[in-house]
């Protein structure tokens, strides 16, 4: 990452003017005349629509169901479009992969659509080329490949579940029998796939039902963390915490702190090798014939608790393993779940072609390239030039193929090693289909014509199959014609409307009982004083690096460290002290002859002797936003050790680099107890801690006052995923400020997620508390504003009148919750960071929300534009507003449904039920601000036999 002072955050200041007073006044008069002329009618004749496009009403939003992918898995969404511009993504409640919610990647997809750095045209050897030239090259190469039945043809894709793409790949392999297809995704869990094969003797995919699990044991796994199934798993976790009589218990053994570990009822930090030994001991306790493994005292205590819980909850107990665990441990977990009759469903793989063909591996492709067996290499939607394991030397080996075609949305690191590049359309620009994690299929329909001269992967596969004029729309429809009854068009319209193909889920796999694998003792490696074990994880904001050029995600705080604009090596504070390091020290991490430089960030909760680093940083060809941000962890990754490097050396460089964070995790015991109450299940709850102090204001909301909007957030099920933060940003035109401004303590998020640690430094127990504006009935910000820009309306909203605000910031100083944000510069109005001022980005702006200028204070409005829209709709239809008709952006995004919003004057509104919950409390309630945003306290369910002190 370049030095902060070199980063472009605003235009360079203009030099001192040499105009005299007379010249300046003359120019002023000219400018005034020009401004008046601009308000007159244009010289050109303008015409309205002769025929208005169907369903288009200027300024009125339309919603369309479609599907977005993460790691090849489809999640159904509903996209809002205004005047043909997609501006907001929300979840499709009918889709099993989204259940009406989103995550940060789905929310940010709409910003990537308008990215000016996207690839715009076909290139040949880095020069613009016409489509006809590509067609001629394809004809030549395919003719040569056909003569050898495709012996030198290789196709590389990411993990794909698209039935149409898989059908096209099948057709290609039938036309070229000697060709081969390979698939690679940098976030694939190869150990899980191999473990299933080892246990059952066949490939299967397991779908765990967290809603039915009363006891969950995570072995270095992060099911609540970011990934294709986060929304489904998060909803199941929340369901399991909703009934006090059937409240789930979550055990977590992990090497690095994760969202799952933060929410765990019992957590233990161990090295990966120690977790594997623990898994073997657990299997032995459950009846496996395994050798006795010596465990430390704290491990034995936890093992006894887990064993007792699992045995007493058969049919409702679940064990899962993470990617750093060996394939033998994954197979062992299958055996354990079978003994427990766990709520796990086994289905057939969803990434096979119709004829059952399975993709080869990237390692096999690299071997073919190295041996010279590849002439035509076609790469679609992948970036192995950046994210392939370093020991494969993919960039150098790919040069041995004479014809190298790359299709991608960006001119990325892989496009640089190809001699042909084809721009790929964004998911919101093209037709396709995808399957959810359980195999349910849905259609991706375009919301907008391609902004640039781009093509879909279906069109490229059609070209390879000899159909030059094929269109994605017809290719997708052809796939599904046999699925409909007689009336295909009616079926098709229904599928597009609902966003899901009913009855298309994967079939249950027919398997025998899983085999118990032979387990080798995973003994710890002997480490030198300067060595540690390194675990790698997908980045919670950038994922595998494919979102590196998305400014929303670069500035989205990582949930557990609050770091933005980069990554860092996480070490336990004691481990950092042992190595003579502190946060901000830059170190060199070396393994297998390769090294990177990265700053250190101390994080309690890390296991001793272990460091953690996220993938996705260090991009060189991401674009104006993502280039040079963070360190590239793929440099250290090898094909045999994708998630865990047993031995890496750490050497200080003597330099320091600021680790940019937006805030800190609150760890001081007094503040944590006051600001984030946490109770054990069954513990008596106190009454109102801070009853409303005497006031001249009305004591409560009167039923005759119309609407009284309020919000309640259940911290017990908030998993800190940040979906609400990015959703608010997309809905309300919240700007990005850039790393230089963050380093000065400035950011513009209307909602933040505070973290509170209720335990010791060696065993954190972190809770998450989303904090929007409190909309206080006694708002401290209102009386101090000298121009009445901060005012209260009749429905309880604390409004901010932008054109009154003069930027005194008195309101910000007087707000005890610190939820107001000030535009020190025109972050969204002429002084944008990087290329965010490009014209294309204007297409994403929500026209119902004002874009704020420099010098203006802004904050959460409870999505007042949505309240207004629902009110207008009810008035047009001459009916009252429904109790759940108004939903805020953050509420819609939440995977666990932790956020509820509604009208206090409607007795049947969910929010009134939540306010009656004994866990209900007001943040800083003793101040007498009477906030409309309130909370439900966190509840944990540790094992009843927990000894003194937390394990």
Description:
The structure is a single chain. It contains 25 helices and 36 strands. The protein has 951 residues and is of the alpha/beta class. The strands form eleven sheets. The protein has a seven-stranded mixed β-sheet with strand order 5-4-16-15-14-6-7, sandwiched between helices. It is globular. Residues 2-17, 33-47 and 947-951 have low confidence and may be disordered.
Features:
951 residues; alpha/beta; six-stranded mixed beta barrel; 25% helix; globular; disordered N terminus; disordered C terminus
Helix content: 10-25%
User: Spans of 5+ residues with little confidence (pLDDT < 50)?
Assistant: 2-17, 33-47, 947-951
How many E-type strands? 36
Shape: globular
**How do the strands of the widest beta sheet line up side by side?**
5-4-16-15-14-6-7
Taken as a percent bin, the fraction of beta residues is 15-25%
Query: How many helices in DSSP terms?
Result: 25
Find the structural class using helix and strand composition.
alpha/beta
Report the end-to-end length measured between terminal Cα atoms.
39 Å
How would you state the average pLDDT, rounded? 91
Rg, rounded, reads: 29 Å
Q: Major sheet, described briefly?
A: 7 strands, mixed
Reconstruct the topology from this structure.
Layout: H1 21-38, E1 61-70, E2 73-82, E3 85-91, H2 104-113, E4 123-124, E5 127-128, H3 131-147, E6 153-157, H4 163-175, E7 180-183, H5 190-200, E8 205-208, E9 215-219, H6 230-240, E10 249-254, H7 259-263, E11 266-269, H8 272-285, H9 297-312, E12 317-321, H10 327-340, E13 344-347, H11 362-370, E14 376-380, H12 384-387, H13 394-398, E15 403-408, E16 420-423, E17 432-435, E18 441-444, H14 457-464, H15 472-480, H16 488-498, E19 531-537, H17 551-554, E20 569-571, H18 573-578, E21 585-591, E22 594-602, E23 610-614, E24 644-656, H19 669-675, E25 678-680, E26 709-714, H20 723-731, H21 739-743, E27 752-757, E28 766-771, E29 790-792, E30 798-800, H22 810-814, E31 821-822, E32 857-858, H23 864-876, H24 889-893, E33 899-903, H25 910-915, E34 920-921, E35 933-936, E36 938-940
Parallel strand pairs: 6-7, 6-14, 9-10, 9-12, 10-11, 14-15, 15-16, 19-23, 20-22, 25-36, 26-35
Antiparallel strand pairs: 1-2, 2-3, 4-5, 4-16, 8-13, 17-18, 19-24, 20-23, 21-22, 21-24, 26-33, 27-28, 29-30, 31-32, 34-35
């Amino acid at each position: 990452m370049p030095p902060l002072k070199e980063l472009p955050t605003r235009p360079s200041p203009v030099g001192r003017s040499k105009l005299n007073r007379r010249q300046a006044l003359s120019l002023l008069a000219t400018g005034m005349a020009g401004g008046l002329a601009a308000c007159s009618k244009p010289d050109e004749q303008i015409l309205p629509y002769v025929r208005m496009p169907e369903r288009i009403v200027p300024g009125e939003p339309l919603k369309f169901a479609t599907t977005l992918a993460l790691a090849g898995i489809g999640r159904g969404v509903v996209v809002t479009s205004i005047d043909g511009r997609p501006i907001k993504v929300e979840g499709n409640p009918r889709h099993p992969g989204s259940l009406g919610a989103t995550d940060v990647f789905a929310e940010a997809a709409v910003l990537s659509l308008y990215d000016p750095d996207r690839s715009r045209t076909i290139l040949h050897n880095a020069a613009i080329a016409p489509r006809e030239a590509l067609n001629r090259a394809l004809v030549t190469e395919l003719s040569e490949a056909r003569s050898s039945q495709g012996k030198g043809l290789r196709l590389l894709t990411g993990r794909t579940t698209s039935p149409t793409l898989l059908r096209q790949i099948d057709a290609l392999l039938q036309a070229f029998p000697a060709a081969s297809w390979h698939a690679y995704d940098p976030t694939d869990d190869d150990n899980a796939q191999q473990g299933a094969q080892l246990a059952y003797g066949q490939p299967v995919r397991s779908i765990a039902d967290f809603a039915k699990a009363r006891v969950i044991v995570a072995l270095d796994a992060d099911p609540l963390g970011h990934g294709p199934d986060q929304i489904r798993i998060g909803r199941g976790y929340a369901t399991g915490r909703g009934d006090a009589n059937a409240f789930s218990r979550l055990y977590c053994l992990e090497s690095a702190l994760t969202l799952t570990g933060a929410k765990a009822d019992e957590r233990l930090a161990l090295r990966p090798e120690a977790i594997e030994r623990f898994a073997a001991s657990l299997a032995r306790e459950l009846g496996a014939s395994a050798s006795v493994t010596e465990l430390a005292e704290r491990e034995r205590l936890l093992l006894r608790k887990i064993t007792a819980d699992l045995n007493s909850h058969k049919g409702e107990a679940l064990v899962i393993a993470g990617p750093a665990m060996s394939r033998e441990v994954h197979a062992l977990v299958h055996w354990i779940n079978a003994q427990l009759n766990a709520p796990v469903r086994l289905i057939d793989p969803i990434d096979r072609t119709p004829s059952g063909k399975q993709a080869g591996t990237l390692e096999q492709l690299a071997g073919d390239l190295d041996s010279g067996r590849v002439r035509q290499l076609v790469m679609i939607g992948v970036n192995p030039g950046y994210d392939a394991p370093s020991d494969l030397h993919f960039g150098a080996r790919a040069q041995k193929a004479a014809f190298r075609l790359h299709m991608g949305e960006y001119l990325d690191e892989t496009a640089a090693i190809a001699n042909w590049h084809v721009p790929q359309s964004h998911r919101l620009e093209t037709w396709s289909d995808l399957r959810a994690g359980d195999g349910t299929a849905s259609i991706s329909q375009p919301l907008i014509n391609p902004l640039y001269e781009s093509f879909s992967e279906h069109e490229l596969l059609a070209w390879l199959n000899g159909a030059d004029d094929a269109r994605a729309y017809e290719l997708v429809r052809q796939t599904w014609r046999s699925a409909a009854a007689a009336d295909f068009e009616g079926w098709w319209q229904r599928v597009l409307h609902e966003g899901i193909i009913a009855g298309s889920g994967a079939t249950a796999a027919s398997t025998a009982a899983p085999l118990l694998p032979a387990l080798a003792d995973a003994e710890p490696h002997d480490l030198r004083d300067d060595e540690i074990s390194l675990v790698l994880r997908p980045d919670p904001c950038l994922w595998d690096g494919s979102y590196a050029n998305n400014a929303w995600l670069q500035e989205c705080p990582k949930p557990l460290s609050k770091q933005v604009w980069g990554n860092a090596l996480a070490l336990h504070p004691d481990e950092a002290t042992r190595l003579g390091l502190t946060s901000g020290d830059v170190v060199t991490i070396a393994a297998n002859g390769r090294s990177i430089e990265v700053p250190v960030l101390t994080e309690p909760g890390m296991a001793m002797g272990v460091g953690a680093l996220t993938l996705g940083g260090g991009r060189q060809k991401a674009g104006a936003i993502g280039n040079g941000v963070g360190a590239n962890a793929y440099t250290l990754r090898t094909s045999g050790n994708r998630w865990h490097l047993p031995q890496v050396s750490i050497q200080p460089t003597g330099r320091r680099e600021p680790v940019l964070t937006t805030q800190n995790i609150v760890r001081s015991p007094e503040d944590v107890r006051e600001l984030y109450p946490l109770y054990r299940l069954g513990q008596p709850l106190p009454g109102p801690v801070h009853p409303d102090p005497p006031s001249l204001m009305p004591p409560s909301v009167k039923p005759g006052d119309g609407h009284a909007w309020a919000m309640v957030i259940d911290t017990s099920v908030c998993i800190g995923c940040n979906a609400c933060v990015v959703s608010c940003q997309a809905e309300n035109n919240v700007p990005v400020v850039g790393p230089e401004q963050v380093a000065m303590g400035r950011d513009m998020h209307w909602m933040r997620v505070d973290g509170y640690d209720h335990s010791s430094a060696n065993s954190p127990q972190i809770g998450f508390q989303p904090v929007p504006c409190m909309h206080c009935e006694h708002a401290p910000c209102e009386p101090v504003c000298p121009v009445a820009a901060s005012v209260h309306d009749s429905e309880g909203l604390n409004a901010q009148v932008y054109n009154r605000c003069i930027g005194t910031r008195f309101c910000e100083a007087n707000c005890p919750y610190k939820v107001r944000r000030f535009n020190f510069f025109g972050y969204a109005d002429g002084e944008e960071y990087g290329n965010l001022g490009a014209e294309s980005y204007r297409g994403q702006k929500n026209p119902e929300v004002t874009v704020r200028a420099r010098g203006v204070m802004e904050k959460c409005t409870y999505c007042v534009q949505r309240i207004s829209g629902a009110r207008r709709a009810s008035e047009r239809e001459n009916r009252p507003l429904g109790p759940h008709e108004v939903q805020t952006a953050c509420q819609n995004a939440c995977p666990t449904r932790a956020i509820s919003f509604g009208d206090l004057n409607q007795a049947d509104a969910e929010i009134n039920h939540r306010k009656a919950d004994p866990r209900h409390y007001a943040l800083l309630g003793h101040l007498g601000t009477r906030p409309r945003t309130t909370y439900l306290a966190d509840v944990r369910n540790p094992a009843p036999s927990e000894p003194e002190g937390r394990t």
